Amino acid sequence: MTTQETVLIAAATVTSELSEVSQVAKNMTLSVMNAKTISQCAGESARGFHPITDYIEDIAKNIDHLVIQISEEARTLSRLSVIYSQSEIGLKRYETVIRKAKDAAHVSSLKGIMQKLYDEFENCRTLLLRKLESLSVSLDDMKNITRSSIVISIMSRVEAAGAFEFRKDLEVVADNLESSTEDIRSHTDISYDKIITVMEQLHRETQK
Prior knowledge:
Elements: H1 3-42, H2 49-100, H3 108-161, H4 167-206
């Protein structure tokens, strides 16, 4: 499989997985609205749950923001992969021409063009690696959010336990948060693994 194919598949995978993450974040927002209503009804017995709903709301917003950012980075990655592939094809064509015309009178005039194509190719690879690294950092940020979400889900269970007759309702909120967190973590891990695979492939090519 060519680098371009690997990158395009990775970018498509990230876009697809993020679409799922976006939907989970929307469900979290709806869930937290319900949780706010429940905690208000519970009054003093759910006092500790009030700030938790704010935390959950912030998490959903941060996830939504990252989804937009990462999606744009994935689109840029796709464009760069096409440019990289075209640059590689052009370089190989000139290598073939020079090899076949090595004894021709003016073959040396092609070497300057060849060097320029090589420099452009290396520049494309550098840009591609930088974008992949940037994308991996953004996905790492998403992972950090899920870690925070796990902590919040544990806190929400503790607070729900003291809400008496509203305990079951608030435990449902905690269950939903835990489930949503696991879904986001799973989709993020799939995306992250794809990006790391492409980075490793590019690094191997660089060392050839």
